[in-house]
Structures are given as C-alpha cells and as structure tokens.
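User: Predict the structure for this protein chain, please.
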Amino acid sequence: MAGAGSQGRAASGVRGKKGWAVSGDRRRIDADQVRANADIVAVVNKYVTLKHVGSEYVGCCPFHEEKTPSFTINPAKAFAHCFGCGAHHDVIGFVMAISGCSFVEACEQLGGNSLADARVMPVRHLVPVGEARWVPIMPVPEATPDLMADDVWTVPLHNPKSGKTSQWKPDRVDAYRHADGRLLGYVLRLPLPENEKKGPRKWTPQVTWCVGPAGAKQWCLQHFPDPRPLCGLDGLQLMPSAPVLVLEGEKCKAVAEKLTDKYAAATWPGGSHGVAKVDWSPLCGRDVVLWPDADPAGMRAMLGANNSAGQLAIGVAQYAARAGARSIRVVDPTGQPSGWDIADAVDDGWTWPQISAWAASRVADVIVVRR
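Assistant: Here is the predicted structure, written as structure tokens:
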C-alpha cells in the first residue's frame, strides 16, 4: 500500500504535501480534584437527554441503540449505568467512553489543571450496591470449558451487571489471544432488532473467564481489564517485520488476514469508544497503516478529533506514536459509501490486487504534532 497520497480531507486532521498532520496529546492531571468537582448529571446531559425519576436520572444509552431508556445516572453514588448493554462509568470514565479520549484528556475536559509532575491515577470504576465483582482470569486456563455449547449457542454467560445468566446466539465469535497464542477471551457479535432509521444494529460484548466473590468460575459478559489487548497479538508475534494493518472491527481484521500475508492485521475491542482503553505498546517499532471505516466516527477513532468543547479526543494515530511506532500512514476512504470498510470491498467483489492498488492510491503519512 505504499505510494501516492490520497484525495480529500478528514475532519480530524490537516492534509499537507507530506500527508496528514494530526494533533498530539497532553497529559498529567489531578484526577481526584476533578472527580470531586464534576457534576456527573450535568456532564452526561450534554450527550444524553435525561429525565428526572425519583432520586435518579434516566435516558437512552449513548453506547448502544435503544428505544426504551435503560441508561441511569445515580448522583448520590456518582456513576452512570446501562441495564441494556452493561456500560458502567464514573464521570471520568463516561467522558473517556463517549469521546474516545484518554484518562488525562477526560480530566482536562472536566476542568482539571495540568500538573507536569503529577502521577496519573487510574479510573476507579464504582460498583453499585448489590453488584458482585467478577475478576477476569487471563490467559484462560487450558481446562476451561468451551465457550460455545454447540455450533449456534453459547454456554450460559453470566452478566455481573444484571446478575442474570443467559445463552446467546452470536453471528461471530472472535478469539483474542496472547502473543504466544494462549486464549485471553472473546468478542461476540450479537444482532439487535433493526432500527427503522439506522438499519441493522449489533452489540459486540467482550467475554472473559472470570472468578466470582465466592470462588465460582464462569464465562461472563465482562470486558477485558484495562489496558485491553489488541486482537491479532499472535499474528504480530509471528510476523515481526511485517507492517501492521490496523482496522476497525474483528470482521475486518479476519478478512485482511485471509487476503494477504504481507501485513499483520490487528484491531481492538470496544469499537470507536474503546480506543483509549487499549494497550497499544505492541505497535512499538512497527510500520503502521490505519484503515478507518468510511464515516466520521471511523476517522475520529483512527486520527482523533476535537470535540464540541474544543478538547482533543485522541485516536489510534496518537496512541501508536506514543507507543513508538516507526511510521504511521492512513488509508483515506473518502468517497466510499458510509461505513464502508475492507470487508465491504470483498463483498463488492474486489480482489486483493484491486484492494491493494486502490489503497496505495489513497494512503498518506500521518504526522503526529506534539504540543
């Protein structure tokens, strides 16, 4: 895919003669002060229309499509929780999830002052009363039961957020593995009822092998612990000198692996909202090519963008630069149908020579500008 620059412009970067110039990142924040001062209801209300119900506020979840509100904000406990998809955040975690920014940048958006020598504290995910904490075990022990009960249904999966256990019928099951091949967990693709305006919808929960408070072990709808692993670590290990093609979504990663052995393919869990929670260190020293979906969300996830408050929500490009990637390029999908990706190209009948030639004409360097 080496070669000429692409045409067009993405909202998250500035295209120059040498490629895309995107903003870098700022860091170091007094997070405890931010938490103490932030009003979680006011923050969430910027993104979600809320209704006051008793001592709580409710609205439609911003992290999955729904018609009946299941997203609840508890001001007294200072957390937001979705009973539909299981999203659970304090005020800093919510800003990270909704904007795709880093922990420090979320604190800055909430009014934190930059402290050059301050230690960055991790997000403290609050646990609602009555919710049992289940801890993922990674890598998964070899004697662990299979995830799938048969060719269609999973084994019963426990949801620590709701306390319920259910079986699911996924369209896809994608394994996440350690660099040495050991299993870390899965991401499922579960179809949701179609939205009349937005068409087909999906839910992509992470599934990990967990131990509960009493010592019971079970497959759970529980996300990978932060920082979360890349999907494709085993391929990166097997192809140490190959450029890394970073795509959005496990399906695109699997398609790329089938198309070519010239690139190591990788993606991350959580979609465009999960960029900030991932361990990008495996990209150190690698030549990286980003392939965003052909929509604003895809470009923001890959290149970052300023939000409505003027704060930078950084993307894969900035994290790759921070991790020490040797080079970073991006394939510009401008002009393709909304949401179009490499899997759609294959569905449209494109061969790898066609995809490679098209991408080579649309690729440009990404220059991360440090501030």
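DSSP finds ten helices and 22 strands in the chain.
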